[in-house]
Design goal:
Length: 40
């Protein structure tokens, strides 16, 4: 059974801010943060 993830706009904005924060500390860290939610 496949589950569906619904991300509300406020949560998406928080995740984007976090990814940018990580990316500012080290190149690629923001992408690593986002990897679990990236569609394949």
């Amino acid at each position: 059974m496949t589950s569906r993830l619904v991300v509300r706009s406020a949560a998406e904005a928080d995740a984007t801010d976090a990814a940018l924060w990580y990316e500012a500390r080290a190149v690629g860290l923001g992408a690593d943060f986002c990897e679990p939610w990236t569609l394949r």
